[in-house]
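> run fold Probable membrane transporter protein
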Amino acid sequence: MDLTISLLLIFFAVALLAGWVDTLAGGGGLITLPALLLAGVAPVNALATNKSQGVMGTLTSSITLFMKGHLRGRELIPLMAAAAVGAALGTWLVQRMETGWLNWVIPLLLLCVALYFWLTPNLGKTEARARQTEKQWALTWVPTLGFYDGVFGPGTGSFYAASGVAFRGQTLVDATIRAKLLNLTTNVASVALFAAGGKVLWTIGAVMMLGQVIGAYIGSHTILNGGARLIRPLVITMCVLMSISQIAQYFGWISLS
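> ok
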């Protein structure tokens, strides 16, 4: 594949858009991964490069939100540790188990999240009574979703945000902000393994990382400056699109190989 300036600019623009979308709702990989595959990048390299540039998006949004006074406090450390353990276990196990069944389970889960947000228009507008304590959430949903990200991945940020609203009674904005940090934690484990295996195409990855940084920075400020109203429709849209993508792969309408 010839890496022309035009192609690299396209990768940059795609990553910028994906960084903005992913910061608000998750699912940015639905934009970047097809772009890499359409450009002729081999599937395993596309997955690895996509993961590497995605980390920069979640890192940038997390740092930006931290600088704005969010994502602070020692209570976040156990959550990050739980997410990392789940992701590491999932990444280790996926290499030793049959995962074909995920191709039809994941679309159902994504559609359930979309339906959940769609049927509850006032979801997460104000804080509600928590169904779990922070410790209970840290020992159940946080590592479970980290494990899912290690095994498969699509929609992890959306799942984290939804669980924060449903089980911790958080507002959608607060749940989305915390989801960035947890998703960053789970992504780092996967990227480390891909990089160690030499699967990342660093020239393309570097260009897309720059786009992700800018897109995530804009997305973080969008959340904090009245963009909260965009989160719910974007979550619904991205979950439905990710579900359709997974169903299409399952039936062979599109292929990653």
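Residues 5-250 form one domain.
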